[in-house]
Design a protein that fits this description.
Blueprint: E1 4-5, H1 8-17, E2 20-26, H2 31-46, E3 52-57, H3 62-68, E4 75-80, E5 83-89, H4 94-101
Length: 116
């Protein structure tokens, strides 16, 4: 599965239209982002039926860093039913991504919402 590169409007549309969206926020110069990219791609390919997967280059969309309070990259955010359900910072493992998806059940419904 191809991970969608999202700009601000495409991200807003995905969050509004899809029940679950997992997004990797990154910059081109971040070495940890490059290591996460391979893990994220493999995970997205295996879990395409559970969520929409995208990535946002904060070098091109800096306003999104402010909107979501992103201070470090990579940051992975899971949106469920339009709400930020989980956030992880750093080059996370596949297991961590699995834990994030446990926030939704098999119907795409949030099982627990994390408040910021």
């Amino acid at each position: 599965m191809e991970i969608q590169s999202l700009d601000k409007s495409a991200l807003d549309r995905a969050i509004a239209e899809e029940s679950a969206v997992m997004v990797e926020f990154y910059t081109e110069s971040c070495p940890f982002c490059k290591s996460l990219e391979r893990i994220f791609q493999g995970f997205a390919a295996d879990r395409a039926e559970q969520a929409v997967f995208g990535k946002v280059n904060l070098g091109q969309e800096p306003s999104l860093a402010k909107r979501y309070g992103i201070r470090s990259v990579p940051t992975v955010i899971l949106f469920v039913d339009g709400v930020l359900a989980d956030r992880r910072v750093g080059a996370v493992s596949r297991g961590t991504l699995e834990e994030m998806l446990k926030k939704i059940d098999s119907n795409g419904t949030p099982t627990q919402k994390k408040t910021e």
